[in-house]
Amino acid sequence: MGEIAADERGLAGGKGEEEEEETSPIEEVRLTVPPGDDPTLPVWTFRMWSIGLLSCALMSFLNQFFSYRTEPLIVTQITVQVASLPMGHFLARVLPRRRFRAPAALGGGEWSLNPGPFNMKEHVLISIFANAGYAFGNGNAYAVMIVDIIRAFYGRSISFIAAWLLITTTQVLGYGWAGLMRKYVVEPAHMWWPSTLVQVSLFRALHEKEESTKGSRQISRSKFFLVALICSFAFQLDTEAYARLGRINLSTFFALSYGLSFATIASTITHVGIFYGKEIYHRFRASQQEEPDIHTKLMRKYDDIPAWWFYSLTVLSMTVSLILCTVLKDQVQLPWWGLLFACGMAFVFTLPISIITATTNQTPGLNVITEYAMGLIMPGYPIANVCFKVYGYMSMSQAVAFLSDFKLGHYMKIPPRSMFIVQFAGTLVAGTVNLSVAWWLLGSVENICQDQLLPPDSPWTCPGDRVFFDASVIWGLVGPKRIFGPHGNYEAVNWFFLIGAAGPVIVYIFHRIFPSQRWILMINLPVLIGATANMPPATAVNYNSWLLIGTIFNFFVFRYRKKWWQRYNYILSAALDAGVAFMAVLLYFTLTMENRTVNWWGTAGEHCPLASCPTAKGVDLGPDSVCPVF
Questions:
Q1: Which of 309, 380, 445, 573 has its CA 20 to 30 A from that of 601?
Q2: What's this model's pTM, rounded to 2 decimal places?
Q3: What GO MF terms are annotated (predicted)?
Q4: If you compute the radius of gyration of the chain from its CA atoms, what whole number of angstroms results?
Q5: Structural domain tally of the chain?
């Protein structure tokens, strides 16, 4: 474990002579991440494991349990980040400091339950555990919804072991190839992963002690965080019945959102190929010859993860997944070739989407394109469709989350092997707890998720699973041929694939024609198109507030008040997130659990009278209706 000094040291200490003059080429990173490290800080501690595993299991339980309720509660990672700080300091006070010597067979080194003050690196690893409990932003393991719709909506059976294998493999499959891509999207300095800087700022505010200057009007970052936190409390398809009902009709905006999703995926491949292809090629050919930045140099003090760990994890996950899709195929419907196709899609898209995320903080998803592809190949098999989607979409998503956490560990100087083990262990714990809670509720709550069979005041309506089920019907049971093919109304939407692929080429041509116009290079079509595709359910209010806040803080404040930006910008972001998270928990247990609501215009639902109008041709609701007739 190693000794540490009595005073609490952060990342700013421990600079070597040759490191003092070095820094990162990215200005935001220079202003946020200190160019130093203290390699003597212990990370592999009893405190880290106990608080980390407890928080991971507790978050997994709460998020899975409340996901079935009409008003779901999601406990986020930042909640644990803040709550685990006093827990860590408490254990540092009460745990015995006695040192023990390990047996010679285990290395013979000394260890202690309490090696010193609770430090920042322990806190980072606890947050990685918490992120696994939060399913890296999804609330719970995505594949659990497959189990839910199989048992609650389709009335089919699936064994616990098949469900556990499905959840576990979809969660860890992407880790294998993600680890092999670290040198492309973690080590390069310009792959700076903007969201990780919020975490770095929060950890520094919570741990680093600031000396107050007499007469200064500045408040400490920890006090600023607290003030901002408080202020922000605010089956088989019946084709005859389908023919009688007619074609599926979508609203114009909803159909457009699908088209934009198609364009986003196509533009991602083209954009990365044009603007980053040469760099990826050079890093592949001579990645060790590039001069690393200061943070990469500091990380070389720690033992790297052997490549065979990632190869072994990939082979093991693929083998178990193939067994699931062959031996237990009747339960998941997905054939072995469908699994390989899904993994191939995820592997191809992981690197370009990671690059987009690392440079823009926006992550295009594969959920729509995977549903579309499998719906074309195997229409009429909804369970196979959602399994294909989860393997294709979630293995990519987990890989990007894995790389994002590794970039945080890169900035915070966490030993890579510790990061990997904590991520893997947290994922296994979280997935197992998610499934256990789901299995318990599906077997104990009568008619769970069945709105028409539940009592009127029942909270077990499963809103998230209902959306997942609807998607399985649209894409798997009905199939995209009846929506976006010759048998549907939206065949023209397929042209968005070509539009998305051609868009970055046009931007590149304009850049070549006008090389002095630097703003052309700032046009990132995967981000622009992908953000627009989120409009349903996002509204103009969401986008206007995002645009306004981003422009104020990341343009005007960054340009004209850089010291303030350096000191408070990311702390404010973390505090606002934490305030919303804690207020959500408070409101849930004080109001929602008592069936009380806060009524105001923001919670009154849709204010547009045309929102519920039918879109099918020839439907007339009468002279008193405001709805148009198409």
A1: 573
A2: 0.80
A3: oligopeptide transmembrane transporter activity
A4: 26
A5: 1
